[in-house]
Amino acid sequence: MTAMSVDLTPASTLSPLLDDLVDWYDASARSLPWRAGEDPWGVLVSEIMLQQTPVARVVPVFNEWMTRWPAPGDLAAAPAGDAIRAWGRLGYPRRALRLHAAAVVCRERFSGTVPSSVDDLRTLPGVGEYTAAAVAVFAYGQRHAVLDTNVRRVHARWLDGRAAPVSTTVVNADRHQALSLLPVNPRQAARVSIAVMELGALVCTARSPSCDRCPLADACRWRAADYPLPSQPARRAQSYDGTDRQCRGRLLAVLRSSGSPVSRGELDAAWDDDVQRARALDTLIADGLVVSESSSSFRLPG
Predict the structure, then answer these.
(1) At a CB cut-off of 8 Å and minimum separation 6, what does 27 contact?
(2) Rounded to a whole number, what is the distance in angstroms from the first to the last CA of the chain?
(3) Which of 7, 69, 54, 14 is closest to 195 using CA atoms?
(4) Which of 22, 104, 184, 227 is 20 to 30 Å from 250 by CA-CA measure?
(5) Is residue 38 annotated as part of the catalytic site, yes or no?
(6) 261 is in which domain, residue-wise?
(7) Separation between Cα atoms, residue 237 and residue 231, nearest integer Å
(8) CB of 101 within 8 A of CB of 108?
């Protein structure tokens, strides 16, 4: 089997293939709450929540969050500690603080709205290259390279004939390749971007790709090469049990469940290892997630 040649220019020769991809997306895309109406605030909240967190865990927290704080100004007016409580068990709770800080910037610098330009989005706390591009594309219909893990895997297989990207980080060649694939029209480009991302999430998955369901199968160079293995073995995931992350989570759970400051004794009861518990508490304070009122009293910020 020979893969179709793909010309990496935003030209009409790509239209039939991209049309097939967008048609697949229209028929197969998941119904996710942040896609309804393409609300910029909802897109920003979802993108930050989805960092290193599965969709299934994010959806209920996202729905509760948007009901409580439907606009940046609503969150900005709330104490930062409320954001940490509402974050629940999504993990990496500094994201809650950054999202609260981003809401404050939106209120103070952008009249209570999420900015539309990538440069302005990059000024928001916790918003990097990927998140800025994602909001600009998915909320505002712009033409930018949106390169998450799923998109980079699809590109590596479809275009490069590799099981996975060569580099673990995005490089200029990745950006150029992604932009070259997109139609010139921004709205059409945005549709292609979200379709590629969804394809990586549902079909061209890391471990069990479903090539029989892929609209790009006949053009896939990885498939044509008989699925060569990655050049490097996959990294083993770090165990969560017993880590400082788990300890921090336990301590935060005690603070989240209390409406008032908690004593050191209450935190001591949450984790047996004295040295690890003290270290975890120190890092929580340093990260701004916990406020020490005294040597024996602690609370969430705000």
Answers:
(1) none
(2) 62
(3) 14
(4) 104
(5) no
(6) 244-299
(7) 18
(8) no
Give DSSP secondary structure letters for 207-219. S---GGG-TTGGG
Q: Is 50 inside a domain boundary?
A: yes
Q: How far is Cα 245 from Cα 280, in angstroms, rounded to an integer?
A: 8
Tell me which of 224, 258, 286 is where a domain ends: 224
- Dig out the tokens for 243 from the structure: 């880590």
Residue closest to 197 by CA, chosen among 163, 161, 148: 148
Alpha helices for the chain (secondary structure H): 15-28, 40-49, 55-68, 72-76, 80-87, 94-109, 118-121, 129-138, 149-160, 172-181, 186-202, 221-224, 244-256, 264-268, 274-286
Catalytic member of 47, 64, 108, 129: 47
Q: Which of 89, 112, 138 is a domain's end point? A: 138
Instruction: List the Cα angle 127/151/71 in 5-degree steps.
Output: 35
Instruction: Indicate the number of domains in the chain.
Output: 3
Residue-wise pLDDT tens digits, 175-220 = 999 999 999 999 999 999 999 999 999 999 999 999 999 999 999 9
Round to whole Å and give the CA distance between 249 and 146.
Answer: 31
CA 290/CA 255 separation, integer angstroms:
8
What CA–CA distance (Å, rounded) separates 154 from 211? 11
Residue 281 has which token pair?
A: 């508490």
Q: Cα(127)–Cα(118) distance, rounded to whole angstroms?
A: 10
Q: What single-letter DSSP state applies at residue 292?
A: E
pLDDT of residue 174: 94
- Alpha carbons 124 and 66: distance in angstroms, whole number: 19
Assign residue 162 the CATH number of its domain: 1.10.1670.10
pLDDT band at 6 (very low <50, low <70, confident <90, very high): very low
Strand partners, 263: 297
Phi, psi of 291 (to 5 degrees): -110, 130
Q: Which two tokens stand for residue 29?
A: 């895309």
Tokens 């440069």 found at: 119
